[in-house]
Records
---
Amino acid sequence: MLKNIEITKKFPLVMITFALISALITGVIAYSKTYASMDDAAKEKLRSLLDSRKSSLNQYFDNIAHQVTFQAHNPIVIDALASFDK
């Protein structure tokens, strides 16, 4: 295929071909590593957000449980429930 072409044209052609192939391979590897890194970062951010929301909800429900327990021992509430029962 390249037998009839002069060496002055073969050499730059071969060098450009090797440079393009190496640039393409480097680009594909960089893209795949960057994609994996960005994917891991996004997952970690979502896990962090999930943990934060979970903690907030647990605190909210603990607060409600504490308030209900407090009101269950309140004498005014106990008397009001006894009056409603009558």
---
Amino acid sequence: MTAPSIHTDELTRRLYANDASVYEEVPVGVAFPVDEEEVLHVLRYARERGRPLVARAAGTSLAGQATGPGLVMDVSRHMTRIMACDPDAQRARVQPGVIRDTLNRAAASHGLHFAPDTATTNRCMIGGMIGNHSAGLYSVKYGSTRDHVHRIRAVLSDTAIAEFGPLTTDELKRCMERPGLEGRIYREMCALLEKHADLIRRSYPHPDIVRRNTGYALDQLLSMEPFTPGGPPFNLAKLLCGSEGTLALTIEAEVGLVPMPRHRVVLVPHYEGLLTAVESVADAVKQDAAAVELLDRIVLDATLDNVEQRRNRFFLEGEPEAVLIIELHGEDPAALQKEAHQLRARLCRSGGAYAVPVFTASEDITRVWELRKAGLGLLMGVWSDRKTPE
């Protein structure tokens, strides 16, 4: 196997100096590994030269996480295979460069899908979603990426390959006895958790907060066996979710798939004030909504000058300061319709909405969500004298 080329020309380095954030850092080089052997080569190359390694996919991080002054490793070009899709187990094995929508097209033939649904699903990749612990539109129903990742095959900083997945207490003890960096990771992680368990439980954000990108998910590990009797099996793959590539490099992941919703309905309440819209979110969540998203006037106005998204404004009535997009799921279409219209009446009566169009046709629902998903890109294109925060 030939070693992958490390591109150090000015053009390539400049192209990888930016991501979707306001930050810019020119890397020393860029690599496009084909498989795990080439990932190992890239890591050795970086270690020998004392350079940090920045793993990069696409479409998830917005705060400069995919930029850095070291060596960028882009998995989006070659490491894009769906290794397996098992409808019986409701699992899929993928390389980190697999696009989320590509995985879902493959899973759809089995009536399944990978549930985390970011605004960038037509380009975001599973490796990035793991690193960023992505959540998205349906997080109130399905949770976030960590909830759907079962195993991760990863490269450690010493170039060893490790597989992280659920372990029984006996298996965990055997992992702690392993030589090398992998065994040390298990030993020191368990010692850290035992020493600081009370502080972690007391100080970490409340677990009801669905997406908590506030450091490493040590509290998740504490909720597992053997630290919480009766909890789920100990699984370091959960810790890698949200670690932004700082702990290990994902080269393959086993993710869970869930059944696609049988019936859907979308309500779009319109509000004359932003605060009134925000106050209505709690009512929608109490209705067991699958998704609740807010679009304010800034985003809505950004769609006016976009030819494609102007067509997707079909549902707007008047000039609202904000709208909510609420999606409900159900097994019985008649019961779902009744539920939707009860919520509509409540939003109009006590929620302050002046209009609440309801949609059941798949094409209409798709167009409503397309407008929501276009928001980030449209905002990035809004002209301003400066975008960098001072």
---
Amino acid sequence: VELAGILEERVGRPLPPTLVWEHPTINALARALEAAPAPEAPAPVQPRAAADAIAIVGIGCRFPGGADHPDTLWRLLTEGRDAIGAVPPERWHAFRAAGKSASGAARWGGFLDDVAGFDAEFFGISAGEARLMDPQQRLLLEVTWEALQHAAIDPARLAGTRTGVYVGICVSEYAHLTTAALDAVEGWTATGGALSIAANRLSYLLDLRGPSMAVDSACSSSLVATHLAVRSLRSGETDCALVGGVNLMLLPALTVAFGQGGGLAPGGRCRPFDAAAEGIVRAEGCGMIVLKRLSDATRDGDRVIAVVRGSAVNSGGRSGALVAPNPKAQEQVLREAYADAGLDPAAVDYVEAHGTGTPLGDPIEAGALGAVCGAGRPPGDPLLIGSIKSNLGHLEAAAGVAGVIKAALVLRHGVVPPSLHFEQPNPHIRFKDWGLRVPTTSQPLARRGRPARAGVSAFGFGGTNAHVVLEAAPAAAPSEPEGRAAHWGVPGLAPARGPGGARAA
């Protein structure tokens, strides 16, 4: 960024702060400085049939700050609460014994209150198997059940159906614990620690016959999972999809690694797009959404929370470094997502950004949003951008679905909550020129005589980019069902209590 500023003074014309990432070799940089590059022609917009729209009909979540339901999450967001805190005393005993948590960025995070409790009996799982199950698998079972309750869908009626499961998941730290001593390894150790089983166990429990897969593209995992599920529903491969992501921080190694690499915010605050942005704050949680084709949801009388209009996924390829973002690839994934949605990118009202709060990542992401979604907007009508990471921290494999859930709630309520810790704009982001604005108080979505629209971005540190385009539910969508949501029974399981009814370690 500093080099771009020096070169800007030397050549006497504005240069983007992302200059070196767009042109990562000396020769490429020299060519870019010799003459202003020609403006890139936007990808052609191909409208899609209305039947391709995908409805979000249910949400389940377990996020820091007690956000264990869409309603409590919405209150946390609109009240502008920060769920980041110190590492709980029961976590990372060896780390604390070594004295490494006394100070520094590694002492902060977004943590769940309880990651050990699990009602194994409710799910028909023996105590011995449950003990060796990764807590991420246990959390997925509970939150998926809650998402189906929120959708008023009887899990028993999904048996034998073409329902797909797509789960973003990156790490299995529990497997390191259960395999540390060979004499303690049991038959259930393999399935308990396998990432694939995180999705497969859901399909097994509910007897689902659609695709069942774990998706790992790092921080974009659950948004890539959403993209895959949308494609599967559109093609007719599946008729319903359970989509989400999970992330738990059971060991300190990754936090220490990110800290030593300079990626963590020393003050324990995520400051997206702010001048004081200094790094990420790691967090844990789980989110799940239930998807159906909009035509099917309307036929079945489902409540439609929001609609997925389009999505896209790409890779940054060979950028400046393995973990360095590629600005052009970020622009391209935006163009492809809005083309897939059949929409002009300037017609989006809000973007839930990846927004990690890093000095480099924020200007690159803002530059891409400005080039694609900010271009052509009236001067007094900037694109609102925000990041749930300012409230919860970076949920990594679950970050994408957390963004989808927030964006869906924004469209349902017609309000954009404040993005926290935004005090002084990052000087390398040209907010006015790029047509962007970060709301610091709750902002109503502008009424434009059409359904409101929101985008969601997620970028994996290995280069996998994803963007999903949402739209407010059709005005004719059924109102929220009365009395339909209940703890439905699955044959062989206790129907009278839900997974939160009795929690046993």
---
Amino acid sequence: MTRRPGVICFAAQDWWYHNRAHSEVQLMLRIARTQPVLLVNSIGMRTPRPGRTSQAGRRIVRKVGSIARGLRRPVDGLPNFHVLSPVTVPMLGNDLVRAANTASVRTQVELAARSIGIEDPAIFVTIPTAWDVIQGMHRRTLLYNRADKHSAFGDIDRPAIEALERDLLRTSDHVLYVSHALLDAERALTGDRAVFLDHGVDLEHFRPRPPTEEPDDLAPIPHPRIGFFGGINDYTVDVPLLERTAREIPDAQLVLIGDSTVPMNGLESLPNVHWLGFRPYERIPAYASGFDVALMPWCDSEWIAACNPVKMKEYLALGLPVVSTEFPEVHRYDKVLTVARDADDFVSAVRGRLADRGPGTPADRRAAVAGDAWDRRADEVLSLMRLR
């Protein structure tokens, strides 16, 4: 008897409280148009500890809230798309807890998959801690979405995460990279199983919006505006650089849209900084269309060196002038955005882009990402999964 196919995705994000622009979410939403999909919310890489983990209490509360939702079908009009928040305890350092947690999560995932009709799954994994669960599961194929180098994440058991990454790199049928630098660095482990799968962008969603659609809480903020949208985390965003930029360009208003896991007191104390907090994904283009210059103020770290932010294509799809700190993948677009060498250069570049709105035109920027629709990327993944 033929088993029914489908896709199980072990995400590095949580559907219920993270930004839904991340690659695995965008891909799975499109794959669910033709295949049953079970998106398993992040099973974590670290145990939040008060005094050691930023906002530990808040992280625990929101994870408990996510787990309480169990298995849901959260998108109207997309009946094939399901989200599971398994009960899990991320404690890699305790062998007994790790084994019990693995067995429990695997059972929850397998029961949920069968309940929605998936019997022969293609498994798509982004978070390396899912390897313990996956290795004991039946699968038709395994794709490792190497969207980030998770062993470079702060406050984790690095040797344990590196071991899980190596197992996935050696075992997966295909390893999908968004960073050429990381692909080249790991070629010895992946060989011809390595595939460069660039990020996509929702071109219809991230189209420029007219001033008449400007949100009520953005409209009173005067121009010029320099802006950023997305999660503000200590391992990605250079908060001191944002503070310096706001201080040294006092005539510009710095608009920040997104949740934060770091103290924002220094930024909020500045008169030209406006932290609006989390806003739904559906509303982000209306906010960002009101920026005069968009910022990518990334930390100088091993994590960032291996990344390729989805945000870059979203900014360009909106036609915005962009100023970014240095990382390898950004140079693929250096004809339509500005790359700063250091903090001095970043502040100077922001001033320059406020004055000249370059390099390139809004049409040039949109054209640079016109071939990068998420639909195209989802078709590539389906082909690799042998589901098309």
